[in-house]
TrEMBL record:
Superkingdom per UniProt: Bacteria
UniProt keyword list: Plasmid
Annotated protein name in UniProt: Peptidase M41 domain-containing protein
High-level lineage: Bacteria, Pseudomonadati, Pseudomonadota, Alphaproteobacteria, Acetobacterales
Listed GO biological process terms: proteolysis
Length: 210
């Protein structure tokens, strides 16, 4: 898979998943074209809305837990990312930036779980805070990713359900870490991957003994 300009999986997504919302399809095309022109790196196929909405403190806390869920899962699954943030609050802006790459089936599974872990964490924090449209759109993106990996609609649906279950289990097992990271994200607004690791696993990052 050629990753020099942008992830070709986006092209496959558009071909194999024609019933995605037209608005989402157009947003994906704009992002892909920008990347092809040397623009910013792509994130998880997430459209960027123009307007910024007013965000209540409770919604901000829910967002922080959502992003912390992504980050903890990424750290545990060895999936690289640059940062998480609650500073960019567009109506549907993925606030975790991945450094995606082709790889093994383990990496594909890991990426699927990481994406699903955000919603799982937000559900656990406050199920009332979840936007059903955004949740279904995120699930559609994950299912399309699974379809690209398997080539089978049935297998893609099964894989997505498996990732959902595994993400919820991971969130339940690591909830204290997610809460710790979310609390720090609310204070600082933005955390790099290194920051996330230090906050979640301080012993591992401070032990320099050979």
């Amino acid at each position: 898979m050629n990753m020099s300009q942008y992830d070709p999986a986006f092209d496959d997504l558009l071909k194999l998943w024609p019933h995605l919302f037209e608005e989402t399809r157009q947003s994906l095309l704009r992002i892909a074209r920008a990347a092809a022109r040397g623009g910013r790196p792509l994130d998880w196929a997430s459209p960027q809305d123009e307007g910024v909405r007013h965000v209540t403190p409770s919604a901000l806390a829910a967002t922080a837990h959502h992003e912390a869920g992504h980050a903890i899962a990424a750290l545990l699954k060895s999936i690289s990312f640059r940062f998480i943030t609650i500073e960019s609050l567009n109506d549907y802006a993925r606030r975790m930036r991945f450094l995606r790459s082709a790889g093994s089936i383990e990496r594909i599974h890991g990426q699927g779980i990481v994406v699903m872990a955000g919603g799982a964490a937000q559900h656990r924090f406050s199920s009332d805070s979840v936007n059903k449209y955004h949740e279904s759109l995120e699930r559609d993106h994950v299912t399309a990713y699974a379809l690209d990996a398997t080539g089978s609609t049935e297998q893609a649906e099964l894989m997505t359900r498996l990732w959902d279950i595994q993400a919820r289990e991971l969130v339940a097992e690591r909830w204290l870490l997610i809460e710790r990271l979310a609390a720090e994200l609310l204070v600082r607004g933005r955390l790099s991957a290194a920051d996330c690791r230090k906050i979640a696993f301080p012993a591992a990052t401070t032990d320099t003994s050979a």
